[in-house]
């Protein structure tokens, strides 16, 4: 699939980004079937994560109707990626193609495919003839297919030219209405409150409004010595990534505009190359006119806008005014965006200062995050807290005070402090604590309104009992160890600040080792136009997909996946996972702690198994710095076993007072090798990690003659055919 974002945007503009049938390309597919006498033919175009079948004939259902192929690495994708024909009489015998999805799962055997190119010569799709049995392609077959692929390219380019002509016409109309354009320019920047939004407006105005083909935006560096493009996505083709940053003393037009504060206009590419000889080898010679517009605020150049056209042109009076207006409005927008960003960072710092640090509780893994609304520079009323009552009980709290201003934040801080004090000083149930809080809220005159959940997690006979009470808050979720997600839905009690004497209720469930409790505020997944059940289901589905995510990363990952860039509400998330302890208990003199876990023959089980190893080590008192090293080595041996070994797989952990040992057994006799991979090789470094970081490591054979295949340690005999790859670290 092409990685050129401009190519994907061009496909979208001509309507080839949607999974719908296209009559013109369907006709090409039918011609291929008729002339080459093949059972199926397709014309596909690559889009992110999938391919659309604009033309298809003879393709099995539901693909023929859906017109979508969602399997990365398919043969058709290979054609687009290479930009050259791919012809095979039997893909099953081709080592580079036989593991492909179409070959492995859909029975494709013979294939002849030719790429389809867009206006700028980028391969964005392919015309393919496919057969479900071996076939030797004749030269006439390939010539016919090449001609039809060229016709597809011509059709695509014709559409692109039509679309470009339409856009140019629209630009000419807008250029003739300069005053209206300047008004619209003001409106466009009115809602640009971040640097990303400012850049989006600049690109849109520069291309659609002024008519430039390419547009780039550079910001002055903080040290005042250089200037850097924020993005090269919309820059002219083939612009070198290494030139993204420019020193102000360099002889380049970007540096000249930033250094002098004067706009630069070049009617042709040759005119710019004549003024700056060193740029001829760095810029696309096919690009025509260019303009460099400095953005000046408070007498200093803070940014430069670069515009480029595919043809030669001179800046007439209207276009000069539009470009000058763009730079002027950009300056005001940048000042506002920077001011709001500074205020927002200050508000975020203040908000986080008001949130307490989570306590360290044995056998519990906790993490939390707070994310302010992107549209506001003020702090809100979302909060979380945790209080370790004693060795066996911990209180967890989360809430959302009504409002998004300093007053709401102040009330949030007072309510949170009251509830924290009640949780520490009163050995009461969650419902009783919420009742105390609501009465204090009324009696002390805070008069705050909002929602909250209070949960008590208590260890009882080796298990954990969860007791919770909700004051109008979204229900807690529990990610079970098996990957299922349970919604703790109950009838919520009255929210805080309405009726302090209202009755509140406790609810009880159990958490087992590996289970994760999730408390959150509604800003995490709530969406306009959806019911609570719909966005809660979306949250449950996302949480279930993160079963192998470490607890420390879970809250932040949820916020990134569910809260959009245009986040309208604050978000607080608190995750608590019950760790799995060693079944034998912690180590003691003469008795090591041991644990064993079966692994599924899938890389999806590597993450949960790694977390399980960390849990066992934590229950044995292994310090965090050493556990980090163990996690790295454990990931390597687990992944290597599942990737290169044979099922069944078993992970074992053994900890005594002097050292810890982790081993992974499988049924393969293939031994890991110590390699020295090159920089460009993807793998081969796992054994290097063992060699450098482990105190000892080795491989024990099982079911055969005893052979020492270890390093710095004795070999151990097993009872099963295969091997155990193990490593040890000293605890001293």
Automatic annotation (TrEMBL):
Gene3D superfamilies: 3.30.450.40, Histidine kinase-like ATPase, C-terminal domain (3.30.565.10), PPM-type phosphatase domain (3.60.40.10). It comes from the Bacteria. InterPro entries: Bact_Sigma-Reg (IPR052016), GAF (IPR003018), GAF-like_dom_sf (IPR029016), HATPase_C_sf (IPR036890), HATPase_dom (IPR003594), PPM-type-like_dom_sf (IPR036457), PPM-type_phosphatase-like_dom (IPR001932). It holds the Pfam family HATPase_c_2. Residues 361-578 form the PPM-type phosphatase domain. Residues 20-166, 193-344 form the GAF domain. The keyword Hydrolase applies. Keywords: Hydrolase. The keyword Hydrolase applies. Residues 700-722 are annotated as: Disordered. This is SpoIIE family protein phosphatase. It comes from Promicromonospora kroppenstedtii.
